[in-house]
Description:
single chain; mainly alpha; 81% helix; elongated
Amino acid sequence: MGFALLLLSKNHSTSAIYVGVIIAALLLLAVGLLRSRLGWILGSILQIAMVAAGTLATPLYFLGAVFGGLWIAAIVIGRKGEAARAAFLKEGQQKPKEA
C-alpha cells in the first residue's frame, strides 16, 4: 500500500490519500492479528480493498492482483505447513513400543 500511496500522492485528492493511509494502517493491524481468525478475515477484506483502489489509479489493479496472489499463496502454503507440523508432532508423541 506504500507504493499505492506514492501513486496517489501526485494526481489525486487528499481524501484518496487518507483512504490509502487507513488501508495501510489496517493492513499492519491485520498482520498483528494473524494468530486469530479475525486477522485472516481482515487481511482478505483489505486485499479486496487494495484491488478496488484500482479505480483511483489504474496501476493499483496490478499491485492489488500481485499482492492478492501472494496473500492466497501464503494461506495455501501456511495450511500445508501447519498440516505437516501437526503430523510431525503427532508422530513424535507416539512412542514406539519396546519389545
